[in-house]
Amino acid sequence: SWIILYPEGTFFDRIYPQVLANSRKYSQKLGREPFKNLLIPRSRALRVICKNFRHRFDAILDITVIYPNTRGPNGERFSSPSIVEYLAGVHNEVEIIMRYIEMKELPESDNDLEKWLYELYRHKDNLMTEYYSSDKSICEI
Does the keyword Transcription regulation apply (predicted)? Predict the structure, then answer.
């Protein structure tokens, strides 16, 4: 069995200022600093999955997708491609980071799981910040 979960809820794109504003507002509510390249993840669905299905799954496959054609000068990040642009070949490259995280590595309490998810996204955001401000591939970073 598989469950696909998008903790950000939607995609990060500077052309949707309300989405970014909502994410920043949510991060303030949590007392956490907002990210530069990602939205603050929502943990409710992950908490429910872990509480009810932890014993049925071996691991989480954490996937981060980066589109090289979205890297602009001076660390600027352009919009991610739409599915139509990607399928049309406008963006024909993608860099992917995958991590296999065993379920036993996840905290059991809701509060600790929420902190764990935030730190996972903090790590992703730091990688992306370095990626967008350099000429390195994600593998080199």
Answer: no
- Provide the residue type at 120 as one letter: L
* Contact assessment for residue 67 and residue 97, using Cβ atoms and an 8 Å cutoff: no
pLDDT digits (tens, 9 = 90+) for 35-94: 888 888 888 899 999 999 888 999 999 999 888 888 888 777 787 787 788 788 877 788
Eight-state DSSP code of residue 108: S
Q: For the chain, what is the mean pLDDT?
A: 86
User: Residue 99: in which H helix or E strand, if any?
Assistant: strand 95-102
Output the DSSP codes for 37-95: SSPPPP-HHHHHHHHHHGGG-SEEEEEEEE-GGGB-GGG-BPPPPPHHHHHTTSS---E
CB atoms inside a 10 Å sphere around CB 40: 25
Q: Spell out the residues 6+ positions from residue 93 whose beta carbon is closer than 8 angstroms to its own.
A: 67, 68, 69
Provide the β-strand partners of residue 60: 101
Predicted TM-score (pTM) of the model is 0.84
Q: Contact at 8 Å (CB) between 101 and 116? A: no
